[in-house]
Amino acid sequence: MMRELYTQVIMDHYQRPRNRGELERADLEEHLLNPLCGDEVTVYANLSGGKVADVKFDGRGCSISQASASMMTERLMGKSCEEAEAEIGRFKDMMVGKEGFPETDDLAALKGVIKYPSRIKCATLAWTAFQLGLEGR
Amino acid sequence: MYGVEEIRRDFPILDRRIDGNRLIYLDNAATSQKPRQVIRALTEYYERHNANIHRGVHRLAEEATAAYEEARQKGARFLGAPDTTGLIFTRGTTESINLVAYAWGRKFLGEGDEVLLTEAEHHSNLVPWQLTARATGAKLRFVPILEDGTLDLEGAERLMGARTKLVGCIHASNVLATINPVERLAELAHDAGALMLVDGAQSAPHLPVDVQALGCDFFACSGHKMLGPTGVGALWGRPEILEEMGPFLGGGEMIREVHLDHSTYNDLPYKFEAGTMNIAQAVGLGAAVDYLGERGMENVREHEKQLGEYAFRRLSEIEGIEIYGPKKDRTGLVSFSLPEVHPHDLSQLLDEEGIAIRSGHHCAQPLMRRLGVAATARASFHLYNTEEEVDALVDALVRAREFFGAFSGAKP
Predict the structure, then answer these.
(1) What share of chain B has pLDDT > 90, as a percent?
(2) Average pLDDT, chain A
(3) Can B363 be counted among the known catalytic residues?
(4) C-beta atoms of A39 and B365 within 8 A
(5) What are the helix (H) ranges across chain A?
(6) Residues 6 or more apart in contact with residue B284 via CB below 8 angstroms
(7) Which candidate in A12, A18, A37, A66 is best for mutational testing of the B interface (most B CBs within 10 A)?
(8) What number of helices (H) and strands (E) belong to chain A?
(9) What ipTM is given for this predicted complex?
(10) Which end of chain B, N or C, is less surrounded by CB atoms within 10 Å?
(11) C-alpha distance across the termini of chain B, in Å
């Protein structure tokens, strides 16, 4: 049943996003558009002492893209840049079935997306933006 | 003699079930389904007549050539062209417009010249002109869209002048459901000494089209949106203009005489058909226009007009819905958005009920920006859709909205 995709966790992050907004004078700011659907997201981060000291996102799009961005901010907050990069790599591997989903994390709610290849890009949008931002530094 | 139930029986795919639900296919502006007459034409071609065309001197080559050229005649008749000279087979609307932008544009456009398009163009009638403008120094200008989604004809008149060399316009909008006054635009273009190109991707499948009555110089359309196979479409051009144009793709068939350092080109329309064409698909398209012709394009238009109006009325009943485009004189499609549900989530929820709609920017990003939205949902109809299917869509939309609404009330 497809409605399983829209779990309570996803809808909660979508309708009450964590860390939504802009960061002024951010060390990392990256805007990314999904050309397939027009969804867009901008990620911001303050990186001090090699750590993700603060992270925010802004954007508009479907529940999957926005909920995933919200989860990402929770996941990356406080991590070192290297850890953040590894975290993003792991998440992207999860979305293509190369890595298992953590059982106890909100991220597990995105597992259902794998079944819908056209939506995977929605789920990885913010993560890719953050990755590009880290690479661009 | 237009019976929608009888028509539906000709489309095998309409018997498909999606997770146990009957398929309700409302994505016809993207591509239409195919009647068995078209599928049979493809199969028969491959099973009985397949050969390369125009040069073989054996039975199959003769038969394949005859079938391909017969399809050209059918296509020309369907579009109201005086004969087949100007009817060029292409891969579809996109290739047709690229052909004009390249073979006409790069030869005849220069610094200071202008191509006048509209704000509502599909990317296929915008990006080819951007490429040509960059190569030639010509400028692109755009006729505005009014608040109600119709074209600003007065604006068009003001924008036309001695610099205008070509006017290009989408005949029927794939987002707004408008039918643009291309006859009037053609008059204005000709008064300004410019050519008129009509993007007929969304009109040829749904309205009676007569390129001579439209007064256009180029008309582009796609076979797959008009019950035909993918991979084939057409460009009709006024032969005297096509004659003056350089070639588009070089290779076999488009030549007359080839030397190591130069070549002369074949007569129309072959000059623009390089390499082995999509022969079977062209034959299939011939069967598709036969099918449409037998049902009568006036009848197809009437059916879809009523269905479009019915859908507009029923969807308007949904509280908070926004429907794009004018209130009347619409084609059979409706673009809309619901405040709480993103179009992508909407089409996924509808898919679960077997209802196929489109969501996204519909390859018209500048128009989306003009409308102030990132994406819309779109239900688009064809000759086999019914009011019951519209009712099912409306019910599903209401359920999708309740589904999302239920979460809004949930505790964080």
Answers:
(1) 92
(2) 91
(3) yes
(4) no
(5) 8-15, 63-76, 81-95, 117-135
(6) B34, B38, B39, B41, B42, B45, B223, B228, B229, B232
(7) A37
(8) 4, 3
(9) 0.85
(10) C
(11) 58
Length of chain B: 412
- What structural domains and CATH numbers belong to chain A? 2-135 (3.90.1010.10)
Over range B78-107, report the average pLDDT. 98
CA distances from B117 to B90, B104, B390 (A): 22, 16, 33
B407–A8 C-beta distance less than 8 A? yes
Instruction: Name the minimum distance, in Å, from the CA of B124 to any CA of chain A.
Output: 15
**What residue ranges define each of the domains in chain B, with the CATH number in brackets?**
4-30+296-401 (3.90.1150.10), 39-293 (3.40.640.10)
Q: DSSP H helical segments within B92-181, as ranges?
A: 93-99, 106-108, 127-136, 153-159
CB neighbours of residue B246 within 10 Å:
12
Residues of B in contact with A15 (CB under 8 A): 407-408
- Both tokens assigned to A113: 């997306």
Looking only at the bridges linking them, the beta strands covering B333-337 and B21-22 are unpaired
Q: What is the pLDDT of residues A30-45, one digit of tens each?
A: 999 987 777 899 999 9
Nearest to A15 among B351, B403, B408 (CB): B408
Element (DSSP H or E) covering residue B77: helix B59-78
